[in-house]
Specification:
This protein is α/β, with parallel strands linked by helices. It folds into two domains: 171 residues, Aspartate Aminotransferase, domain 1 (Alpha-Beta Complex), CATH 3.90.1150.10; 242 residues, Type I PLP-dependent aspartate aminotransferase-like (Major domain) (Aspartate Aminotransferase, domain 2, 3-Layer(aba) Sandwich), CATH 3.40.640. The protein is built from 13 helices and 14 strands. The strands form three sheets. The chain has a seven-stranded mixed beta sheet, with helices on both faces. Strand 1 and strand 2 form a beta hairpin. Helix 2 runs antiparallel to helix 9, helix 5 runs parallel beside helix 6 and helix 12 packs across helix 13. The longest helix has 24 residues. The protein binds pyridoxal-5'-phosphate.
Length: 431
């Protein structure tokens, strides 16, 4: 029953285009969320697998975070000055993240990515950006290219053409972004040999979650590091989702590859709006208010509500226990799904890491954007619709990512698998 949700969709539509404030949201309107659960405005209960697009790592409404946030409300917000919390949380980030010699906060992943690119451009005196096809780094011109391009328009897989991912971008945006296939270091080397003298930075999301869940092949990130050193370009890790999640120090800790700059967000504050640009001291110093030339500003930067949340969240993420638990839950899901797909004879796979996952309808391992894009979208939609009816919240996009939190239990995973079994049966029966 979704009567009230449907009415809200109509009412919203009179005020808000499409009834959502972010285009990546589906029109299910929620009333509240707690732990691993979300309740919609019709009173339906879901096991949440959207988990705030990867931001919610501990579970909804963590009581310790709520208490810390409540405390800062008492002493005044947005004063236009720094307080002690800004130092405390920056120190935690520095201690946890290998590349973080220096730290500066922002509010969203997009903003922090914009800042990182400005730093790389100032440092190198060059302008172009290299990014993986299928990766999303936020909604700004510099990276809103080749996100989910139509493969028919995107050129050959090993040297893709830039394809704009939105209207309203600068006219010459294709001249500034060079897309490469993920998991292909030779293609990156070729692209840098061709454009290297103009390239400021290579941006890499170490696991491409914005095409579902595509982990790096063994040795890929090491090769990216080597190639970026060889061509003397700045390596930026977009750890907006992987940060603090794959390990306390993020993907760079797990894979042992240290970039020059890193962008962090999402799990840093369990869903409160905080992001950070961190990195090598000499690079970060270009934002120094007295002797740097890159303007680093923002009215809400290091907002105390988000910092209070982060100070508690990072303490909980620091010793690696949460990440170990997420790994166990992910393994249970991956194994359980594999057994179900085999039993039902459906060509489907669940790829997962660090509590995040995606289901692809294909019998091939998904290693880059093209292999994700060529999985069966319609089978996924049928599956997702059925899973939702079984009370598990997933998104209709076959290239989106899902997840579980520290609050999800083994029983939750088993209930998710029961719902997925129904979804797989619906796909099998359609064939
Ligand atoms: C990998 C990655 N980078 C950057 C962003 C942009 O972050 P925000 O939505 O906070 O602007 C996102 C958002 O989903 C993301 O997943």
């Amino acid at each position: 029953m979704r009567k009230r949700s449907l009415r809200l969709l109509e009412e919203y539509g009179d005020v808000v285009p499409g009834g959502v404030h972010s285009n990546f949201r589906s029109p299910v309107y929620y009333e509240r969320a707690k732990g691993s659960r979300v309740w919609d405005v019709d009173g339906n209960e879901y096991i949440d697998c959207v988990v705030s697009n990867g931001a919610c790592i501990l579970g909804h409404g963590d009581p310790d975070i709520s208490e810390a946030v409540g405390e800062v409300l008492e002493y005044g917000l947005s004063v236009g000055l720094e307080g002690e919390l800004g130092l405390k949380v920056a120190r935690l980030v520095k201690e946890m993240v290998p590349s973080a010699e220096r730290v500066r906060f922002a509010n969203t992943g997009t903003e922090a990515m914009m800042k990182a690119v400005m730093i790389a451009r100032e440092h190198t005196g060059r302008g172009k950006i290299v990014k993986a096809e299928g990766a999303y780094h936020g909604w700004y011109d510099d990276f809103l290219v080749s996100v989910h391009p139509d493969p028919k328009l995107a050129g050959p897989p090993n040297s893709p053409l830039p394809v704009r991912a939105s209207g309203g971008l600068r006219r010459d945006v294709e001249d500034w972004v060079v897309p490469v296939p993920f998991n292909d270091p030779e293609a990156l080397d070729r692209a840098l040999s061709l454009h290297g003298d103009d390239v400021a930075a290579v941006i890499v999301e170490p696991v491409v979650f914005n095409s579902g869940c595509i982990p790096p092949k063994d040795g890929y990130l090491e090769a990216v590091r080597e190639v970026t050193h060889k061509h003397d370009v700045v390596l930026i890790f977009d750890e907006v989702i992987t940060g603090f999640r794959l390990a306390p120090g993020g993907a760079q800790e797990l894979y042992g590859v240290v970039p020059d700059l890193t962008v962090l967000a999402k799990a840093i504050a369990n869903g409160y709006p905080l992001a950070a640009v961190v990195g090598r001291r000499d690079l970060m110093e270009v934002t120094h208010p007295a002797h740097g030339r890159v303007l680093y500003a923002g009215t809400y930067n290091a907002h105390h509500v988000a910092l209070a949340a982060a100070s508690v969240c990072l303490e909980k993420l620091r010793d690696g226990g949460v990440q170990r638990r997420l790994r166990e839950l992910t393994e249970r899901l991956v194994e359980g799904f594999g057994r179900l797909a085999d039993k039902l004879g459906v060509k489907a796979r669940l790829q997962g890491i660090g509590g995040q996952f995606q289901v692809y309808f294909t019998d091939e391992e998904v290693v880059d954007y093209r292999s994700a894009a060529f999985s069966d979208e319609w089978a996924y939609r049928r599956f997702q619709g059925r899973v939702l009816r079984e009370g598990v919240l997933m998104k209709p996009s076959y290239l989106f990512h899902h997840g579980v939190t520290y609050s999800h239990t083994e029983e939750d995973i088993d209930r998710i698998l029961e719902a997925m079994e129904k979804g797989l049966e619906a796909v099998r029966d359609e064939d």
